[in-house]
Design a protein that fits this description.
CATH topology: Rossmann fold
Order of helices and strands: EHEHHEEEHHEHEHHEH
Family: Belongs to the cytidylate kinase family. Type 1 subfamily.
Structural class: alpha/beta
Radius of gyration: 16 Å
Catalytic activity: CMP + ATP = CDP + ADP; dCMP + ATP = dCDP + ADP
Bound molecules: adenosine-5'-diphosphate, cytidine-5'-diphosphate
Subcellular location: Cytoplasm
CATH class: Alpha Beta
EC number: 2.7.4.25
Strand order of the largest sheet: 2-6-1-7-8
CATH architecture: 3-Layer(aba) Sandwich
Number of strands: 8
GO molecular function, one term: kinase activity
Length: 217
């Protein structure tokens, strides 16, 4: 079987990470959550209280541990759970729109995918990080369904939220991500769109697995 890279992009809470993780497990590939990397820099931004993004990316000590899921280590501390909190979610799209932040992380992500065999999810993976990925998916779902899914996620994680605010937050973040100047969220021309509204996790995983198999042969 041929080694390939798979890029999964799309708006907030469309199911990208859930499906990317399962597809990676199925084919013994490495799963990379690029959103978590933007979230980690955002946490550092909140802690440092500075708008000097050049300084932030120079100083940051960010380690991505890629075994069995992904752990994010910021300055020696595992922040994998912390970066899901509301304060980070509120600011992440702003921080992710800054040029030094994007240049730094795209470079890190390209290094992670250098040997192929990764399933990487985010907003600009198919367009910017891995434009040569063998399979590109653009995953969408209705805002209502995405907000409901995130509500359940938050309940499980013990994060307080309500449906209406989640819907507003998802819409606001999508608008910001789609309209920023540098590598905005957009479907790559050669990406395959999958609308997961009303589909089960298994159905989406199977669909993408079939596509992946056809690229590996
Ligand atoms: N068909 C589906 N595809 C993907 N995720 C689904 C589906 N149905 C329900 N979910 C749930 O929706 C949530 C999606 O969140 P996540 O994978 O973090 O999305 P994203 O990475 O796009 O932000 C998960 O809790 C997952 O269990
Ligand atoms: N490749 C990426 C991944 C995330 N991001 C930014 O990081 C934010 C958080 O990404 P995420 O994947 O954790 O978002 P969720 O949909 O999981 O909440 C997004 O809203 C984008 O602003 C990005 O700009 N480029």
């Amino acid at each position: 079987m041929k080694k390939i890279n798979i890029a999964i992009d799309g708006p907030a809470a469309a199911g990208k990470s859930t499906i990317a993780k399962l597809v990676a497990q199925k084919f013994n590939m490495i799963y990379v959550d690029t959103g978590a990397m933007y979230r980690a820099i955002t946490l550092y931004y909140i802690e440092q209280e500075t708008e000097d993004f050049d300084r932030l990316v120079k100083e940051i000590d960010l380690k991505i541990v890629l075994d069995n899921g992904q752990r994010v280590i910021l300055n020696g501390e595992d922040v994998s759970e912390r970066i899901r909190q509301n304060d980070v979610t509120q600011k992440v799209s702003y921080v992710a729109s800054k040029e030094p932040v994007r240049t730094f992380l795209v470079n890190e992500q390209q290094k992670l995918a250098n040997e192929k065999n990764v399933v990487m999810d985010g907003r600009d993976v198919g367009t910017t990080v891995l434009p040569d990925a063998e399979l590109k998916i653009y995953m969408i779902a209705s805002v209502e369904e995405r907000a409901l899914r995130r509500l359940k996620d938050n309940e499980l994680r013990g994060i307080e939220s309500d449906l209406e605010s989640l819907k507003l937050d998802i819409e606001r973040r999508d608008q910001y991500d789609m309209n920023r100047e540098i590598s905005p969220l957009v479907k790559a021309e050669d990406a395959i769109s999958i609308d997961t509204t009303g589909l089960t996790i298994e159905e989406v995983t199977n669909k993408i697995s079939e596509l992946a198999k056809s690229k590996m042969n």
